[in-house]
Amino acid sequence: MDSVLTSTFSGALSQRADSTAVDPSSLVVSSAAEATTDRGVGQLSAVEMDFEARNWRAARDVVQYKRGHKDKKAMAEFLSRQESPEQAKDSCIEASKRASGQYAPVVGGVLSKIEAFMKVGDVAMKGAPESVGLAWMGIRLCMHSVEDDFATFQLFGGAAGDIIGILISCRTYGKIYGADRGPKGREDFQELHQKLVDYIPGIYTEILEFSYQMSKHIGRNMGVRLLKGLLSSVANKFGGMIAGIKRSEKTMS
User: Fold this and answer.
1) What is the pLDDT along the chain (253 residues), one digit of tens a residue?
2) Is the Cβ–Cβ distance between 118 and 133 less than 8 Å?
3) Within 10 Å of residue 184's Cβ, how many Cβ atoms?
4) 3-state DSSP helix/strand/coil percent for the chain, to nearest 5?
5) 3-class DSSP assignment, residue 122
C-alpha cells in the first residue's frame, strides 16, 4: 500500500501545486465561525482545521485507551503537557549552542524544518492543541540527545526532523483536501483522499506513541542533570519506532 500511496500522493501534489497554492497568512483563523468568511479562503481553513482535529484526536484516543498502557501516572503527566512549535524551536536553538561542529548540520536541519512548518501555519494547534501539542513535546525532547554521542543524536535528531516532515506533508494535503472537497472533486483525488483518511490517523498515532515513550523515559530522569547516556542507553528501544516514523515520512513526502 505504501508504494501506491506514495505514487498517487506525489502525483496529486505535482498536478495541483499551482491551483491549490494558498497564502499561509490566510490559513490562520481564531475560530470555526470566523473561518467561514473571506471569500471562501476561510472556509478552506475551517475544513482543514476539522480534518486535522479529527485525525489528531483519534490518534490521542488510541494511545490513551487502546495501547494497553498501565502506568496511569505517566500517561496523565504526558497528556497534561501541551507544547508548541515555538517551544521546539527554542529547544533547537539552545541545542545549537551546546552542540559541537559535528552536530551542527543535524540541528540546523531540524531548525529549518520547524521554521518551514511555522510559515504555513499550524491549523492543527488551533483545532486540537491538546493532541498535536504532545507531538511537539516529543520533538522538543529529541533535542536532549545533543548531550549524547553523535550516533544517538543522529537517531533522535533524525526522528525530530522526520516527524516535522510528516506534519508539513499532512499540512500540504490538508490544503489540497480543502480545495477539492465536495462532489465536484476529481475521482482519482477522491480515491487518494480515502487512502489518506485511512492512513494519516495511524501515522499520528505512532508519533504520539513515540512522544509518550520519550516523556515517560525522560520524565523519570528529570531529577538529574541531562548527561551523556540518557538517550543512548535506550536507543535500541526507540530504534523500531523511529524506523517506522522514517518510513511514514518517506511515504508522505
Assistant:
1) 444 444 443 443 443 333 333 333 333 333 333 333 333 444 457 777 888 888 899 999 999 999 999 999 999 999 998 899 999 999 999 988 888 889 999 999 999 999 998 887 677 788 788 899 999 999 999 998 888 889 999 999 999 999 999 998 887 776 666 555 544 556 666 776 677 767 888 999 999 999 999 999 887 665 444 556 678 888 888 999 999 999 998 887 7
2) no
3) 6
4) 75, 0, 25
5) coil
Distance CA 218, CA 220 (A): 5
Retrieve residue 63's grid coordinates. Answer: 494511545
For residues 247 and 2, the answer to whether their CB atoms sit within 8 Å is yes
Cell 475544513: give the residue: 47
Amino acid, single-letter form, for residue 221 = N
